[in-house]
Every structure is written in C-alpha cells, then in structure tokens.
Amino acid sequence: MAHHIIKQNKWSIATVLSMPLPSPKNNKETVKFNRSLSVAKVILPASYDSPNEAVYCRKADLMNMTFPICLYDAKTDDTVSGLLLRGTYYEANEISRFIRLLQLDRRLQLVDIGANVGLWSLPAARVANVLAIEPNWSSMSRLAKAVDLGAVSSNITLIHNAISDVRTTLHMGVHPTNQGNAFLINSSKCIKTPIGLRCNTLPPTKTIFLNDLLPLMRSRAALLKVDVEGHEVNVFTDSSAGQFFDHVDVPVVFMEWKLCKRHSSDVVHRLLNFFHSRNYTAFNLRNSKLEKQYLKWPDDVLFKKPPYVRV
Prior knowledge:
The protein has helices at 27-36, 80-85, 92-104, 121-124, 137-149, 232-235, 238-247, 265-276, and strands at 3-6, 13-14, 42-43, 53-62, 65-71, 108-113, 130-133, 156-159, 162-163, 169-175, 178-185, 200-208, 221-226, 252-256, 281-283, 300-304. The protein has 311 residues and is an alpha/beta fold. The protein has a nine-stranded mixed sheet, with helices on one face. A four-stranded mixed sheet has the order 9-12-10-11, with no helix packed on it. The chain starts with a strand and ends in a 7-residue tail after the last strand.
C-alpha cells in the first residue's frame, strides 16, 4: 500500500465561471444566480494542501473500475477507511446501484452532499459529471488528492462548504474514530455527537444553500446523495433548496434517515412536506414504498418522483 504525507499551506479556492447556468426566468433570478457564484468554495484538486498527517492512498475496486482513494489510518477512521484498508468497500451495493443509473441515463450527474473521502464521487466521476460537497478539511484534502491522482478533475467539481438553510460560519464536530461522523455544531467546542458519544472539534466551515450550487451544475438532471449526520432537515427547505429543484430534474434522492427521525415532529414534517409537495414518495432500498410512520423507516431511504426508476 503506497502512502503520501502532505502538508498544509493554503487551499486554492476558485469560483467556476465557465459552467452553464440554468436559464433564469427574470432579471431578479439572474441576480440571485450571479450572487451565488461567489458563495461556494471550489477546490482545485491539483493544488490541494492538507494537515500535516499521514494520507494513505491505495487502489480501490468497484464495478470493474480501479481507482485511487486516499484514506485516514484505521485508528482515526475505523469505518470507511478501516474497512477499505481491510479490502471492503463501504456501501458498495448502494453506490453500485447509483452508478448503474448514471450509466443508463447520460443526462444525469451526481450531487454528493457529504462526500467524505469520495466513496460515491470517485467511481461516479468515471461515468458521469459529479459535484462533491464536503465541509471537513481533512476529508476534502483526501478527496482532492484522489481526484488528482486518478486524473478525473475534468469530471468532478469539489466544494468545501456545508449545505444548510442559512449562510453563516459554523464549527464542526467529529467522532474521534469515525471521520464520516462529522457534523455542524452551534458552539465553538463539540460536547457530544448527535447520539451522545464523545467528539472532537473541527475547524469552522461556511454554510451555503443547495440553491447556491446551481451555477456549478453541468446538467439539468441529477441524482442526489445526502449524508450529513442529521442536518438533512436543514438542507431541504423551500427557501434554500426550492430553486434547485425548480431548475434541476432530480428523479432520486438517497438520504440517510436514522438521525433525521430524531428531530422534533414539526421539523421532520417540514422535510417530508418539501418532498411531498414536489410529488416525491419515500421508498426503502428494496424499492418498496414506505407506508409506515416515519419513525419506523429504515436507516437509509430513497425519495423518488414519477415515473419511479428502479434503483
């Protein structure tokens, strides 16, 4: 297993101006789109930097594709990195199903919200365009290095932000042995994870709207994967995400649900109404409609709109 150690100097941040904008309906919308160009922090993979820590880059295999992926050590990240270091690709079945959808419909691009080290984004970038959003500096540095090593920079746009319903700056917390369990906090020090476990404090990150991604989209059709440790309820609001769904055809949203359902019922119903008002229905990963009360839904769900594609 090859490994690289990279040091922190300064991230190169660029605003991508060359990508096609959705056609605005009026001048007011044009102003909104242009303003959002300066919001998202776009990372150039070839000019990444990272903290002074070991970054283990190795080959991964999925769906007859082989590509580099850059990981934490197993003690720091016992889930995604630990499994890959032992030869197991985390969420391989779910990712493979989305890759097949991207292969079947070349209009689609992947919007990966909570990209981590790139389990979804790296293979997807080999068959489609990808917009990968990750607020954790350490994970983004690994993803940027893997994109550069794998020569897929032309297919993937890396965004170092968190998606929320407000534009602000927030600190983050992370579980000390599971770097995928990184989450926004409303204080300068992390006290506990969303399920009450110990945590470390990460540097602050800027939050943006889902709408702010519109100028960076390369297609008007996309699959969304969202894994933001319970913050999904703030990603999908009419004011922060409605414009995105007005301009982009999103047939399927893959969402982690296990932390969403812990919120108060009014917050959860606000999220559900966002999708129901847009004619989406919740399914499990076996493509069966979820008829039960949302507290009984599985850990991961699919929101799909007609005609329902089989994932």
